[in-house]
Amino acid sequence: MNVLAILESDIMKNLIEDVLMDETAVQNVKVIKPNSDLHSINYKSVDMIIIDVRNEYEKVLSYIEKIKKKYSYIKVIVIDVRKRSKLFKRFIKCRAEGYIVDIFDKEEFAYIMHKIIIGKKFYDLDLLQELFDEDEKNGRNKLTIRENEILTLVGDGYNNKEISQKLFITENTVKKHVSSIFTKLGFKSRKEVILYLKKNKRATYL
Fold it and tell me: Are residues 111 and 164 in the same domain?
């Protein structure tokens, strides 16, 4: 495995070289600065890219995103001590294999790197939870006001006939709204709706 590390810090350079030296799968580690000529690199011979984004390197990050899309087999690991959720979303979208925000000690870092090298993925749990929460919120925002009303009533255990009577609409209209809700939020049963509303403390979905 050939590794390309884009690093500004000499401390990070020493750490990564030290950790990867113990990995039998790694044959070569090339370290370059963020201001290096990235176009001159033969990416066909690169198996992993590690990039430390302590500062803003928009051109570098955009370029790496393009490389990942072109060479999907290249493993991309981002080290972001500033823990930026927007940056995290970008690299999740381009299917980066790792997103690390804290390096407490060498052993932990070595463990994470080894797992990624053998085919696992590693993402910061806090950033991952933020992403899930945002996706959930966006899903709720897709519902119309009427769909939100019906969602709440379904969660209260009312059937379609009872909902139609409460909202003074036809039962067929209720069925259409329920079907739309299930499609938008990915539900398969009314039981899932009830569990979903309990989990989210019956928040207002407007």
Answer: no
Task: Give the tens place of pLDDT for each residue, 22-50.
Answer: 899 999 999 999 989 999 999 999 999 99
What is the spatial distance between Cα 55 and Cα 175, in angstroms, rounded to a whole number?
Answer: 52
> What span, in angstroms and rounded, lies between the C-alpha atoms of 19 and 5?
13
Q: What is the C-alpha separation between 178 and 53, in angstroms, rounded?
A: 45
pTM: 0.65
Q: Are 50 and 6 in contact (CB under 8 A)?
A: yes
Residue 204 domain-assigned (yes or no):
no
- Same domain? For 103 and 151 the reply is no
Cα–Cα distance between 75 and 176 in angstroms, integer?
44
Q: What pLDDT is recorded for position 136? A: 60
